[in-house]
Amino acid sequence: MAVVQVLSITDPFEVFRKMAHEAVDALVEKFEDFFKKGDLPTVTEISERFNETKRAFLGQCLESMLQTLAADFLRQEYASCPGCGRLVRRKRIDKRKVSTIPGDFVLPRPYFYCADCGCGFHPLDEHLEIVQELHQLDIQQKIAKLAADLPYERAVEHFTDLTGIEVSSHFGHKTLNAIGKEATAEVVIPDMEEISRRIDALSDGASRPVMVLALDGAHMPTRPEGGRAEKRGPGKYKEAKGFRLYLMGPDERIVHIASWHQVKDASAFEEEIALIASRIPQDKVKICLLGDGASWIWNLYKKYFPEGTEILDYFHCSEHVFETAFCQYGETLDAREWAESVMTRLGLDMAGSVIAGLKRMKPANEDAEKSILSLITYLENHKYRFGYDEHKKEGCPIGSGGIESSNKFICHTRIKRSGAWWLKENCNAMLRVRCAIYNGTFKQVIENYKASKFKKLK
Ligand SMILES: [Zn+2]
User: Fold this and answer.
1) Ligand 1 center to residue 91 CA distance, Å?
2) String of DSSP letters for 313-372
3) Which of 96, 169, 257, 388 could disulfide-link 152, Cβ–Cβ 3.0 to 4.6 Å?
4) Can you give the pTM of this predicted structure?
5) Domain locations in the chain?
């Protein structure tokens, strides 16, 4: 056996070279017909042949390399028990198949068993970071990334096409959910150091850059637990609460920092707002807070960003104003002119005078009366959140386009597929992974995932 061979040669590199040579010999045989036929094969034919044979060849190389590099571990006879620390003797050698992107290989590794703790273990697995699943972490992270963009069936289809590795869509599903579990807000949202770095890159030293936090909800198709749709009943739309944090760069360019979206209620979402508040160096930026009419948004802003400038989304506001205009004046030019003049005065931060005017208005009918009253309440609730002209001058956005595009890009494009109804837990795992990729923190998520795997082995 190869393991024995390792013992007799001292230079490990020389051992590897000898073993890899055998792999080359095996590979060359697969190309023999090209040399015998006489006809010149095309590049496509050669490429196909390499694709068919490369994994067997590289798998053999990988196996040889590990047998050389890990020679000491492969012949390890004693190991200390991870439970009690007692030294235990090797029980046997277990062979296992390992699948990586370059190729598959078989690893014979020592198995130890501690009778006191009743626990068996393979120390080499942890040294080499070999996970229990057949497909290793390199495959798992690529699958998760693909499945974050495409429906599971399509993701595994592309993966198999490109790598030659057969994986099931169930494996894709399981892997994404497991990685999503480790994609906590702590890792998915960049840390303070990274946020500071992005601020400094924009800062001209003279004025503080404008940093925008926008909150919004998006409706996600969710379903209850259970097997078939007929049995478990219909799905329903639930609100995913989300925020986007970004900087205003030159020419009103958005410099993205973080997106975070989860189907949960406002009180559970608060933790994540507290987290983001703790990571923003608030003295380095001018903070603008954007939102629509939903009260949960403004309550959170008040609590965590008392110094921030609150701005009510311009379009949300103008929708309200136009609705009242049409109730009062019908779909007329008068209605438009009235609504535009209201928006102009709100832009000049004259909510007080707009409210006074509304109170003096004679409603044209019952609907108009209702609409006027509701607009008065709305304007009173958001009294200090207009002043659009001044905000624009200071470089703050007045519309929530930033969060809306995040809603669309993170949530809708992957979650809202025809016929797709998600378990809330799986929907949230998917959203977290998508946020991590978008925020540039996917690598840290994978580190977390890896750590969770080896914690369990210990
Ligand atoms: Zn023990």
Assistant:
1) 14
2) -HHHHHHHHHHHHHHHH-SSHHHHHHHHHHHHHHHTT-HHHHHHHHHH---SSHHHHHHH
3) 169
4) 0.90
5) 1-130, 185-313+399-446, 316-384
